[in-house]
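Ex. 9. Protein: HAD family hydrolase.
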Amino acid sequence: MLKYKLVVSDLDGTLLGNDGNVSAATKELIQSYQRQGGIFTVATGRMEDAVKPHLNLLNVAGPAILYNGAKIIDMDKNDIIFEAFLKYEVAKEALKLLQDYEWDVLLYQNGKIYIKEMTPGIEKHLKKEDVECEVVGDLHDFLQLAPTKILIIGDNGKFDFFSQDLQNRMGIKINFTQSEETYLEILPEGASKGAALKTLADALKISIEDVIAIGDHLNDLSMIQVAGLGIAMENAHPQLKDNAGFITVSNEAEGVKEVLLRVLNDLDFSYNIPDADAI
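Predicted structure tokens for HAD family hydrolase:
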């Protein structure tokens, strides 16, 4: 019997190589893990259209955590387990304040992305996630309903100032996270991968102690902390490594593959495997 019943992995910088793909060896181990009764899924900042192709290729049918914890959905059944929205007044004020910054802003609402205008930065992001967007002009004027999240791509040296300024204007603590050095996201209150992981484990009737979470950046920190075993990639942010119960090899060296090898062979996570392929 498997010790860990649920394995949840981040996508970018974790399950995916730098080329945006999952190796054949990792795919086979995911299938082996599922055949033995385990549940494998992903927790990502991506939207539905950017995740479903990967789940289809991996033949993963379980619920996925999207938008950095703002939504949990079984896309095969179109069954929403959890969904949260960014407060309209927070989103509205954020979009107004962002007019003072030369940053790329993407508004996520109803499974779509809306932008003011196309830029090289946005084009690069869309290409990476293989999704499309709609150009609508001024986002502050466009917004009429509470969105799922706002993604900002820009100079992270100014993110702290912007975050504090927005919170001072609103008079409340606002939920920010970073999934990459140049990405700042504004999320619904209380939404995080960690909170979503707890909700997902409860829905699947799996103890959180029987869950492995794997990630590489600050948006993964909460799920690394709440999982029975939190694992950081070798290429992970230092803060994630400090909080992880185990550090696997990098995404380019197929760190998720190493984790699954240990799980399937009931190997301890307290020592390194000299040659994972030899197992």
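Check your answer against this statement. The longest strand covers residues 104-109.
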